[in-house]
Each structure stands twice: as C-alpha cells, then as structure tokens.
Amino acid sequence: MPYRHTIGARTYQFADLKALLARASPPRAGDVLAGVAAATYEERVAAQSMLAALAPGLMPEMVAAVSKLLRNQELIAVTRRVEVVTRFRNTLGLRGHLATRLQPNHPTDDLRGIAASLVDGLLYGSGDAVLGINPATDNVQAVSDLLQMLDGVRAQYEIPTQTCVLCHVTTTLELIKRGAPVDLAFQSIAGTEAANKSFGISLSVLQEAWEATLALGRGTLGDNVMYFETGQGSALSANAHHGLDQQTCEARAYAVARRYRPLLVNSVVGFIGPEYLYDGKQIIRAALEDHFCGKLLGLPMGVDVCYTNHAEADQDDMDTLLTLLGVAGCNFIMGVPGADDIMLGYQSTSFHDALYLRRVLGLRPAPEFAAWLAQQGIFDASGRQLPVAA
C-alpha cells in the first residue's frame, strides 16, 4: 500500500510501510548503506508527518513509528513514566532504582582473572541485574566451569542476584541436560526470521530454552528466566533486513523478546560499529529510541552504553547518554572494569559510572541487593559506598 504526503507544492510518495518507516528515521549510517534512508530533510519530515496519522497501537512497527516522531526529551519523558518490573532472586525495574550487570569478561576465560574483576565490581555495588560473562569460547565444558565458579561465589556469599554465561542458547540447553547451575538462558536476537536464522536460532528453539530454564525453578522471588541482547544494525549486517530500516528491525526484535517474559533485555547500542551508527550523536539517539520502544512494548529494558574505537564517539558522548538514560528510567546498565572490555574489545561503562549515576540522580540498587551491600559493609544505609578496610 503506497503512502503520500504533500509539503507545499511537492507530494512525497512511499511505496509501502517499510519505505515509510525507513524515510522517517533520523540519519543512520546503516540506513544510508542499505539505500533506504531519506534523501533530504524534507522527505524525512514528510514521512514523519505521514506516520503521525498511523501512530496509535502497540505493534512493534507502530512503536517504532511513534519514536521517529519524538524529540530526545520526549523519548525520555515518556519512558520515565513506564515501570517494567521483573524478578528472579531480586526485584529489578522499580522506579528510583538502577541495576547493573557485572561484566567480568576475560580474553582467555581465566577463572582467577574473572574472579578478580568480580570482587572488584561487587565492592563497587555492581551486579544486581546479573553476574554475566561473555565467554571467549562456546565450549560446553568451559562454559560449565564459568557457571560453576559464578554460582559458587553467589551461593557462598548469599548474594541476592542471578548468574549467566552469555553462550549460545543451544549450549545452555546442553548445560541444563548436564545439570549445570543455569539461572538464565541468554540469546542475541534480531527483528527478522532470516537474521535470527543467521544467529542459529528460531522461535521454537527459544521456546525450548525458556521452558527448560523455567523447569529448573531456581528463582526465589520470580520466574523471569530469559536474557536477550539486541542492537540496531544486526539484521543489516546479516543481509537480512528485507529493506527495513535498522531501527524498525530493532523494535521487531523486542516483539520477539516479550513473548518469553524476560528478566533482562538490553540493546548493545554502539557495539556493531560506525557502519551502522556513525558517531556519538547517532548512538545517543538510537539508544533513546531503543529504550523507548522496549519499554512501550513492556520489556525490562537496559542499555549497554558503548562504542567501538573506530567510531566517531568518545567517553564524553557516553557520559551524556548515560545521564540521559538515568533520567529516562533505564532498568540497568553494564559494569565493566575500567569501562574497557578486554575480551570483546569495546568501550562501555565502568563500576564508577554506575556510582556517579546513582549519586547524582538519587537512584538505588535493587532493594534486596542494596540490603546485602549494607549487610556486608560495602554500602551504608543511605546507599553510599564505604571505604574498603585494609
């Protein structure tokens, strides 16, 4: 179905909904690469004006459409009012709280190196969203060793959080069969069937993993057991976008995620690189859109505030984005030693960044985790970090 909108003496025509959505998107390097971006600012305004008449409704394409019409401050103002709460061993997403994923990655999966980063993060109050490792290998035994170590630390110190090794979901299924201590099933997902196929998954595989993880019954407060990561440009990078713009593809990934009632979802917004989000301005806008679309679709949305070293972005851009997301009510961010992931080779947010955001905005960790931090003498009753005893 074609769409038309007239500005002055000129009528703009868009062949179908995917063309309309693409032309309405703010500038994206990836959309230019795919040949779907608006040719001029006026064409973009025409597409956005046309979308304004189509905005009611909460299908992913419509949520994407609404996001294209909003300024950054409006994306923030809307999502600040949306509370999405999930539970496993603690309570995440409550208004006035900010959680962190403690991400102690190591380039060789060295258990001692990971343990050192784990202790470092816990002493900075990180880890209430999840203690989550990106493994250097998807080898089943290696991943099992990582899970056993994480679960051992969690159990020994009675930490009210959950653990996860972010391996492929089929590896998680094998680990469950072997009796490994699996709390959450993780998978990267995208917004088209072809893109998900390139990841080696289907909806039926995700369903199997969801049911298998639920059956373990390891949660003490709730049964949200899935963890998904997404990112604008993933479908295009797999040549599986079918002419859709990358932000609309991203919103469609959120529709996949919500079927499985996840504990955590986050966009790894700047990870794929400048071919898809060229600079700090594009990364900031994309992150606010992702957070908006995820929250409106009912997801417990976090964001990995990140960039790669060959992007036209720097840590000042990430500081700006971090602060904006805190104001917007983002459920969680990442906690990476020094903000530099030495395994994945990208820049994210540090343990100190979470302390900054909690302090300036008056945010607290998840309530059960905050109580544990106070009990351990890591934070005081007001949520401020205490010095480590010599």
Give structural notes.
With 390 residues, the chain is of the alpha/beta class. It folds into two domains: 51 residues, ethanolamine ammonia-lyase heavy chain domain like (Ribosomal Protein L24e, Chain: T); 297 residues, Aldolase class I (TIM Barrel). The strands form five sheets. Strands 7-6-5-12 form a four-stranded parallel sheet, with helices on one face. A four-stranded parallel sheet has the order 8-9-10-11. A hairpin with a 3-residue loop joins strand 3 and strand 4.
Q: What is the class of the largest domain in the CATH system?
A: Alpha Beta
Output the helix-strand order.
EEHHHHHEEEHEHEHEHHEHHEHEHEEEHH
Low-confidence stretches: none
Enumerate how many helices there are, as a single number: 16
Percent of residues in helices comes to 40-55%
State the CATH superfamily name of the largest domain: Aldolase class I
The total strand number stands at: 14
Structural class: alpha/beta
Supply the CATH architecture of the largest domain: Alpha-Beta Barrel
* Biggest sheet record: 4 strands, parallel
In total, the number of domains comes to: 2
- Average of pLDDT: 94
Radius of gyration, CA atoms, in whole angstroms? 21 Å
Terminal Cα separation, in Å?
70 Å
Strand content: 5-15%
What is the CATH third-level topology name of the largest domain? TIM Barrel
Order of the strands making up the biggest sheet: 7-6-5-12
Bulk shape: globular
